[in-house]
Specification:
CheY-like_superfamily; alpha+beta; Response regulatory domain-containing protein; Sig_transdc_resp-reg_receiver; 59 residues
Length: 59
């Protein structure tokens, strides 16, 4: 629903699930990436920076 209303939204899903089907569904619906809640903070920062760089290149 967010992507429908805000098509330029930059969404990174934060999840506690390891279920790849759920993750794949969210990515298919427009999430730019995902982060598991148990990911160390430094790795979270890296994922966000890398995903943002890709998002910016898309224009």
């Amino acid at each position: 629903e967010i992507i429908d209303e805000f098509p330029d939204a930059f969404i990174i899903m934060l999840t506690s699930t390891a279920d790849m089907e759920t993750v794949e569904n969210c990515l298919a619906y427009g999430a730019a990436n995902y982060i598991r809640k148990d990911t160390p903070i430094e790795e979270m920062k890296k994922i966000i920076k890398e995903t943002w760089a890709i998002y910016k290149k898309r224009g």
